[in-house]
Input
Amino acid sequence: MTMPIMTEALPVRGAPCWVNLLVRDLPGAQAFYAAVLGWKFDDSGILGEAFSVALDDGCPVAGIGARSPFLAAPTVWTPYFASADVNGTADQIRERGATVAVGPLAVGEGRAAIASDRDGAVFGVWEGAAPVWSSGAAGPRPWLELWTRDVFEAALFYGEVFSWPRPGPDAVDVAYEEEQVVARVSGRPMAVLSGGAVGSAPDPRIRPRWIIHFPVDDAPRAAAQADRAGGETFPSPGVRSSEYVVRDPEGALFTVAEGAGL
Output
């Protein structure tokens, strides 16, 4: 498990601070995402030879690392949420009937864990200085949506684990809007929780999961590039136009969407 270059600032507790993907074929994944999203990669080895930071117009947006051959987990894009105490957060996750699959363990100068909620949606927890894009720098950062069976049950789970809502200088606000739950920091949406997932569905696109939406200027073009690069694309099951679900060559799902997202 790897994390990107860090800043000096600590992220807002309970807010998303990074997205990461572990793959079997790192050069192949880099070639695919370069073709689809135009990413370049920082392979300077600051955090090890098996890890790269994806750059969009020079701005760090995501991490892609080589997975250990002994790790049998599926290839999945994973959002990380900030915690002041990853051990305590892991305990909160377990106490609420969810699973901590990896960690907590030391990663560079921070600590991390990978978990799944009660419906099986995978997410990470990070303690330490913030990954680069959470520091407020402008750039095409992704946005997050939880596709879940029961939006209120999910809001209760994540609210208890990450203290949503919360007043104070690092306030997190939560509101019910158009049959979705939206969590905000400083008035800016950080994640949306949407219902409609089917827990036992054979199709992973409609099973509970955290969806990583990557903004693009031309979603149909990005989808066509994905098909040509060895991926597979589908119309989004949501109501937004100009949005496609993409399955990369190793099976990881993500979304390309036009516009600013949330």
Observations:
- The chain has one domain: 16-258.
